[in-house]
Amino acid sequence: MTAIGSRPLRADARRNRDKLVTAAAKVFARRGLAAPLEDVAREAGVSIGTLYNHFPTREELVDAVFRDRLTGLDRVAAEALADPDPWNGFVVFMEGLFALQAEDRGLNEALAAGFTAASGMEEACGRGMRDLGRVIERARDAGALRPDFEASDVALLVLGMSRVIGESMEVVPGAWRRCLRFYLDGLRPGAANPSDVPALTSGELAEIAARSRPPARG
Hints:
By secondary structure, the chain is mostly helical. The protein contains 11 helices and no strands. It starts with 10 loop residues before the first helix and ends in a 6-residue tail after the last helix.
């Protein structure tokens, strides 16, 4: 574990950093990414100055919190690819992805707003997209998934589903599952109608995510 630059952290500084990451995970999960950083420092039992010493920007703190959380996608992908039924594997991945978002308001907002520029989250999301591509290809090759469906279509769905999750999680926590089920049923080849609109490019997705990202806060 290192501080800004390459110098190793002292034991007390490392403890403070770990406390801040743990506290931020709790605060962001409850209140979302816009939660005041003073609340994070208070939860950790340190000063706001100590927080900024370790994490000069909010994005750096978000990255530290959620890069480990996103490793849950590795487990979801492994389970999906191990399923002998390619369609079931696809469903497992989709349900697992949105279950992670539904369990954590901060993660839900981070994925929807495209907080992936920092190295940790970018790497984890990159692995998730590669695994998703394998899951999709497997289901398409088996004839279980409409042939024009792409991983970028899931990325766009994340933007919409994050709103469903965010608005319903405190009223009907499982409402997103009903919404997802209707969506999945429409992806069966027998229910598909060709689309005149092509799948989004990575550049288009990045621009959409940037437009949905909230203004930076301290």
